[in-house]
């Protein structure tokens, strides 16, 4: 029951798991988070990737993401490229 509760998202009233897959231009996987519980906030799941972007990514390199990927600080805005959501 505890595991089931961890995957429950109260905002959507359903069960989910979250995944982050980050690929290099050559197709190799450079960062992965698999099956994170749906009750965890997206920015918490991405915190290790944020650290890599800020501290281990060469100048001029970026992550290309979808509109749902959370950009939690202005420091990350220049590291994450995503299309604008409708209405933004």
User: Major sheet: size, sense and barrel closure?
Assistant: 2 strands, antiparallel
Strand order of the largest sheet: 1-2
Count of distinct strands: 6
Rounded radius of gyration (Å): 15 Å
Shape annotation: globular
Amino- and carboxy-terminal Cα gap: 40 Å
What structural category characterises the helix and strand content? alpha+beta
Q: What is the strand content?
A: 25-35%
Order of helices and strands: HEEEEHHEHE
Averaged pLDDT: 84
Residue runs with pLDDT of under 50 for 5 or more positions: none
Tell me roughly what share of residues is in helical segments. Answer: 25-40%
Number of domains: 1
Helical element count? 4
Domain DDE Tnp4: 3-72
Protein name: DDE Tnp4 domain-containing protein
GO molecular function: metal ion binding
InterPro entries: HARBI1_dom
């Amino acid at each position: 029951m505890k595991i089931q509760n961890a995957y429950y998202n109260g905002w959507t009233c359903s069960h989910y798991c979250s995944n982050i897959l980050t690929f290099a231009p050559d197709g190799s996987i450079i960062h992965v988070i698999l099956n994170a519980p749906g009750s965890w906030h997206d920015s918490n799941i991405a915190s290790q990737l944020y650290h890599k972007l800020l501290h281990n990514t060469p100048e001029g390199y970026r992550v290309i993401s979808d509109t749902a990927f959370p950009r939690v600080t202005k420091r990350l805005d220049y590291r994450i490229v995503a299309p604008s959501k409708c209405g933004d």
